[in-house]
What does this fold into?
Amino acid sequence: CTQPSKPTSKSLPKSRLPPPRAAISVPPPSLVYDLESLLESGLASDVTFIVGEEMEEMKAHKPILIARCPVPILSEETMHLKEINVPDVDPDYFRELLRFIYTDQISQEALEEMADELLAAANRFGLSRLK
It folds into this structure.
């Protein structure tokens, strides 16, 4: 005894087929761009790093730093601070480190110019993708 086969869309009469859906255009992802813009603007930042001998100010966002750094860039002693001094790091290196933390990207130029420093930062903060 054979059972009737289940109708497929190929076997259904055209009048019973669902109407074709309109093509939906999905914009490309923008998270990387959005996070980089947030870093550059400093909008809603809740911590300022004072970096290098030049004492350059760099604004950042604690939740992003906490989420993205396996080895905390913020310690229990510094978590409550609004300003954190980082006198032993060149501002250019620290800026690239923050950009990587926010975007998971690094420019080829930065890699060529500061590879050793970025490797040291990758080791210090557990950023294995930067290695």
